[in-house]
Amino acid sequence: MTDSITRSCASCGTVASGNFCSGCGASLAQRTCAHCQVELSLHARFCHRCGQPAGQASVRPAGARSDRRAWTVAGALCALLVAGIAYKVSGGAPEPAAPDMANAGSSTGSSGPAPDISQMSPDERFDRLFNRIMQAAGRSDSVEIERFTPMALGAYQQLETRDADARYHAAVLHLQVGGFAAAGALADTILSESPAHLFGYLIHGEVAKVRNDSRGRAQAQRDFLSRYGSAMRSNRVEYLEHKPVLDEFKAEAEKRDTPF
Predict the structure, then answer these.
(1) How far is 164 from 198, CA to CA, in rounded Å?
(2) Three-state DSSP class for residue 204
(3) Does 50 reside within a domain?
(4) Rounded to a whole number, what is the largest CA-CA distance in the chain?
(5) Whole-angstrom Cα distance, residue 110 to residue 258?
(6) 228 in the Ramachandran plot: left (φ > 0), alpha (ψ -120 to 50) or beta?
(7) How far apart are CA 26 and CA 199, in angstroms?
(8) Alpha carbon of 83 to those of 79, 88, 138, 146, 256: distances in Å?
(9) Considering only CA atoms, which of 83, 85, 75 is closest in space to residue 176?
(10) pLDDT in tens, 134-161
(11) Does any domain span residue 91?
């Protein structure tokens, strides 16, 4: 019997019924995740429950190209971010537990089903995915980074408000996978909304570094140093939370001879 339910084709937008679109011929059948069998929306690129690419049981499709530079250009910055997470809970506090997302996509070694990230708020989803990617960066796990970065950036786009801290985190994600132009654009936005914000100069400096732009990096370092004192006296929460990153960038800037 013909399926009488009408739905919009994910490929061309035609309203159709049955198993195939009358406009372009694309399948209209309900999709399920090959890994955990949960039902997926027609537009889903990733499973909302386990994080696997939609319709694939493996993390990386056969023949996928791996750009090794993508996993090394921001290694030092990501290592500092991991240190920053530890810094926030230092002072005798117990070691932070791994986020619930740590078992996403895994069918072994977990105490229960992976959390359904579609039920989280955009802020929580972005934080969970960002922390997971930073942990993967600390392990140099390029497969994990490649798998979850698109999901994290998608969660960032869904944030109702984006402050300098969120933009900085998104810039780090772009840097991690070679999105230098996008990271630079986020730095410009930070400085446009909050003139003299240290994160803007920090991001510009890191982008210049991976592009081998010594002049651009020197300029970012000078701008950073000229505003560091007054910025830190403002006691912004994001400065305190990322103090190890800022201190490292400051130390490099002070050591560098940057005359024109």
Answers:
(1) 10
(2) helix
(3) no
(4) 78
(5) 51
(6) alpha
(7) 45
(8) 6, 9, 10, 22, 23
(9) 75
(10) 888 888 888 888 888 999 999 999 999 9
(11) yes
Query: At residue 105, what are phi and psi to the nearest 5 degrees?
Result: 80, 5
Question: Looking at the domain assignment, is residue 211 inside a domain?
Answer: yes
């929580």: which residue's tokens?
124
The predicted-structure confidence for 61-74, as pLDDT tens digits, reads as follows: 333 333 444 444 44
Collapsing DSSP states into helix, strand and coil, what is residue 40?
strand
Count how many domains the chain has: 1
215-242 pLDDT, tens digit per residue, is 999 999 999 999 999 999 999 999 999 9
Give the Cα separation of 111 and 188 in Å (integer): 44
Residue 29 has phi, psi (to 5 degrees) of -65, 145
Total residue count of the chain as it appears in this document: 260
Report the first-to-last Cα separation within the chain, whole angstroms: 77
Is 11 among the domain residues? Answer: no
- Record the tokens describing residue 211, joined without a space: 């592009």
Question: Tokens 């537009």 map to which residue?
Answer: 43
How many Å separate Cα 45 from the centre of its chain? Answer: 16
The whole-angstrom separation of Cα 246 and Cα 227 is 12
- Domain range for 162 is 68-255
- DSSP three-state, residue 252: helix
How confident is the model at residue 87, as a pLDDT? 41
The pair phi, psi for residue 49, each rounded to 5°, is -95, -50
- Residue 134's CATH number: 1.25.40.10
